[in-house]
Amino acid sequence: MKRVLLAAGLLCMAGSALAAGKSCDELKSEIAAKIDAKGAHGYSLEVVDKGASADGKVVGTCEAGRKEIVYKRG
After folding, report:
1. Which DSSP helix (H) or strand (E) runs through 3?
2. pLDDT of residue 52
């Protein structure tokens, strides 16, 4: 049981380390590529502080959850 808990803890730590390691610009580029691949046009992606009032849909988080990437149409 202790090994299972230890393994779960290590996986959580590894996941958060990977999430913290990605810059907002890098993640924004990846998201834009996925949206472009679906044929979408006339949209914008904006990096804002977490919890900031932004009209749009949150499509990603970066900088260890301190920033959000917001998708806006039009």
Report:
1. helix 2-21
2. 86
